[in-house]
Amino acid sequence: MRKTALVLALPLFFTPVLGFDVAKLNAKKAVPYEQKTQEFRLPVGIDENGVIDEAKLGDSPYAKTVIYGAKLINETTRYLGPQAKDEKMRFAGNNLSCSSCHTSGGVVPDQSPFVGIYARFPQYVARSDQLVTLQDRINGCFQRSMAGRAIPTNSKEMRAMIAYMHWLSAGYEVGAKVRGQGLPKAQFLDRAADPKKGREIYAAKCAACHGENGEGIKNEAFAQNGDYYTFPALWGDDSYNTGAGMYRLIEGARYVKATMPKGDASLSWEEAFDVTAYINSKPRKIKPDRKKDFPDLDVKQMDMDVGPYNDGFDENDHRFGPYKRMIKK
């Protein structure tokens, strides 16, 4: 009996307490100063739709650079993507714009805004497990969400985008947080996300704008001005690749919950997770070397669907959840 009791106790005693380590991530993100939280506000000269009144900015070199930066953010493919006249300027690999994810040029709270962002860099990023600059972060988007290549960090275009974000951050203290920055915190489901349910949600609430096949709706007036898409492509070669944050289920669901349907963000968390799982089950460009992402397995995001892992769950678990069980206790 004693032998039996000992054998039964061993697995419980030696069960590894592994998984996503929230405490370790917070420690890595920690800064040696008090982080104040400031209210969300826009500078004079831009409205809540991201439209700049150029007359209010003036014609100084700074103002002109900010205005150019806004154009790069809102009409990315015209200047830096497949539609750029100069082939050497085609850094983006698809026709999305920065505004495809950062709503209205990054001026809408809880929809990945740029307001105050200049004051929050450099910052620790778990994906590379190192401190990164704002230029690094922009280039990460160009290589992942835009499925392209990095922009030279001292180029006219990079300086313009940085200037635009600097202007949107004027008046914020260095290191300050901003109410409405980022996306809403996810509310995890008690089940795995279901792409089949997501397909029904997509047909009912998404296809009218993004197309039955996720192809998006193009802007018929693009030749004159504006963004390439009225509603962006969600899968296929003209969408984000598998290395983008949107391709990870938790991150994608947070964005969908905050923004969709456009103008009426009314999906439940269950709907957001399911429809995101469906969208990300569709084909898209593959980002190479994803195994190199999140080198510290303790803080590897739970929705990263490429191993290795240290928690005993497989790629399917990480892709669809449920995620509460993956958090280190």
From TrEMBL:
Q: Where are the transmembrane segments?
A: none
**Domain Cytochrome c, first and last residues per copy:** 82-169, 193-283
Write out the entry's keywords from A to Z.
Heme, Iron, Metal-binding, Signal
Q: Does this UniProt record's set of keywords contain Nucleotide-binding? A: no
Q: Coiled-coil region(s) at which residues?
A: none
> In the UniProt record, does the keyword Mitochondrion occur?
no
Q: What start and end residues bound the annotated signal peptide?
A: 1-19
Q: Which PROSITE patterns match?
A: CYTC (PS51007)
Q: Which InterPro entries match?
A: Cyt_c-like_dom (IPR009056), Cyt_c-like_dom_sf (IPR036909), Cytochrome_c-type_DH (IPR051459)
The terms under GO molecular function for this entry are: electron transfer activity; heme binding; metal ion binding
PANTHER family, alphabetized: ALCOHOL DEHYDROGENASE CYTOCHROME C SUBUNIT (PTHR35008:SF8), BLL4482 PROTEIN-RELATED (PTHR35008)
Would you tell me the protein name for this molecule? Cytochrome C
List the source organism: Campylobacter gracilis RM3268
